[in-house]
Design brief:
The chain has 130 residues and is α+β, with helices and mostly antiparallel strands. The protein has 2 helices and 8 strands.
């Protein structure tokens, strides 16, 4: 494998579940898996943290009202650089739907589609993100 085709080191670190009725979805996932789902501070009614109860090898997630029909569950994949990841997505035939965006004090993300039109997100940890 040439250096330009080298894979990016990455792992799934977060997921988001969109819901038409968040209260109903919260009840379902809490009963099914025992997940604890609570509002994110400052985002009440707009975003909830999903505590899966797992250790470092099991990602937590979030839940929000569905933004558009057909919005899928999105997996966030940690990468060293969102900027480099977006470039590689494009080079390999994928699409960047939402470019690099800051989550203040946490990091950066970009929403992408793979060659099969599956949505995923790139995530870069950076506590200095603004």
């Amino acid at each position: 494998m040439s250096k330009s085709n080298k894979a990016i080191p990455a792992n799934v670190i977060w997921f988001e579940i969109p819901a038409d009725q968040p209260a109903r979805a919260q009840q379902f996932y809490s009963a099914l898996f025992g997940w604890k789902i609570n509002p994110m501070p400052g985002m009440e009614g707009k975003y909830w943290h999903i505590d899966t109860g797992g250790k470092h090898d099991m990602p937590d997630g979030g839940m929000m009202p569905r933004a558009c029909p057909g919005q899928p569950i999105t997996n966030y994949i940690r990468v060293p650089s969102v900027t480099k990841g977006m470039a590689k997505v494009k080079k390999l035939g994928g699409v960047v739907c939402k470019p690099k965006t800051a989550v203040p004090g946490m990091g950066y993300f970009a929403i992408c589609l793979d060659t099969e039109k599956n949505m995923f997100a790139l995530w870069e940890v950076n506590m200095k993100a603004k």
